[in-house]
Amino acid sequence: MADHTIHCDIVSAEGEIFSGAAKMVFVPAAQGELGIAPRHAPLLSLLKAGEVRVLTPDGQELFFFVGGGALEIQPKKVTVLADTALRAKDVDEAAALAAKQRAEEALKGKIDKIEQAEALAELARAAAQLRLLQKLRKIKG
Predict the structure, then answer these.
(1) pLDDT digits (tens, 9 = 90+) for 2-47
(2) What topology is assigned to 2-88 in CATH?
(3) What are the extents of the domains in the chain?
(4) What is the CATH code for 92-140?
(5) What is the C-alpha separation between 129 and 10, in angstroms, rounded?
(6) Angle 93-108/113-140 helices, nearest 10 degrees?
(7) Which of 56, 92, 124, 141 has its CA 20 to 30 A from that of 116?
């Protein structure tokens, strides 16, 4: 069984979110979504805000949200080092909508380049959280 799984760790500054075996892991890399299977070639990549999906050996599909970060892949282990990370069930829709609205309002005003970059990053994180919630609703519905 060990040859058919890869160990996956998802961690953030707040602590470990997930650690366990996976048949497949999907991550939002800077270049686009990556699918990581056992015996994947070694790789380092930056992550953008979005969903991480872990397919467990027993067929479960687990969803997580990351706000960006870094990814390290080794043939027997994948590590997601997230700036922020949440289990999908812990994503707060009201907070994501409020963050999206704050960012949109900030972008309408006269702001400097740094404030603009911060607002755009907040907008991207909120939009990614809302997309994950919509996807989960479709799966459950």
Answers:
(1) 578 999 999 988 889 999 999 999 999 988 999 999 999 999 999 9
(2) ATP Synthase; domain 1 (2.60.15)
(3) 2-88, 92-140
(4) 1.20.5
(5) 17
(6) 150
(7) 92
Token output for 18:
């997930």
Length of the chain: 141
Please state the rounded mean pLDDT for residues 91-118.
75
18: phi > 0 → left, psi -120 to 50 → alpha, else beta; which? beta
* CB-based burial, 72-91: b 16+ in 10 Å, e otherwise: ebeeeebebbbeebbebeeb
Report residue 10 as tokens. 């998802």
> What b/e readout covers 109-119, taking b as 16+ CB neighbours within 10 angstroms?
eeeeeeeeeeb
